[in-house]
Amino acid sequence: MGFEVIARPKGGNVDKMAEKVFYESIKLLGGLRRLIEFRNLTWLPSLAEAAYVVVLKNETLKTYGEIARELGITEQTAKNIVTADEEEVIKYLEGELEERPKDHIAGGIAKMAYRRLKEEGKLDTEEIEIRQEEMNVLDIDWAVHVLAKVRGLDFPASREELVERLGGMIIKGRKIEDILEMIEYPVKSPAELLHKIKLQL
Known about the structure:
Blueprint: H1 14-28, H2 31-37, H3 44-59, H4 64-71, H5 75-82, H6 86-93, H7 105-119, H8 132-138, H9 142-150, H10 159-166, E1 170-171, E2 174-175, H11 176-181, H12 190-200
Antiparallel strand pairs: 1-2
Helix pairs in contact: 1-3, 1-7, 1-9, 3-7, 3-9, 4-5, 6-7
C-alpha cells in the first residue's frame, strides 16, 4: 500500500537534500560495491531523478505539474515516484516477488531514503553519509550533479546553454564538453539530457 511522505517545508537547499537522498538510496541498495557487482549502475540516473522529485514534493510542496516542468518529466512519472509502494519495492528487491511490481522502483527507494533521513534528523545537516571522495573516484554521482547544475534552465536547451551550465564537469574521466559534442540538439528536458549522456558513457 503506497502513501505519500508529508513533511513541513523548511526551505532548505533542495540540491543538497536531493544529493543526500540519492546517497542514502545507494546505501539502502547495499552500497556501491553491491551495485557494481550486480551491474546496476544504470539505475543511478533514475535514482537521482526520484531523489529530486521526493525532495521537491515534500520540502517545497510543489505540485506534480510544477515538478514535472522543473525536471522535464511527465506529471504521471512524478506522481508514480511520490506514490510508489515502498513495501512492494522492498519485497521485489529481496526476491519475494516473482514479477516486477507496477510501482516506480527508484521512487520507492528514494522515499525510503528520504524518510530515514528525516526520522534521523540528517536531511538538513551538512553531514555526508557516503564518502564524497569515494563517489568522485567512481564517478557515479554524475546524474545528481547534472540535475543540480541545470535546475532552472529553460528547456529545450542548446549545446551552448548546456556547456555554460555544465562546463568543467568530468564524467567517468571524460570532459562534459566532449560528451555534449556527441549528442543531438535541442535537448528537450533534464531527463532526456541524463539519458543522452548515459548513452555516451
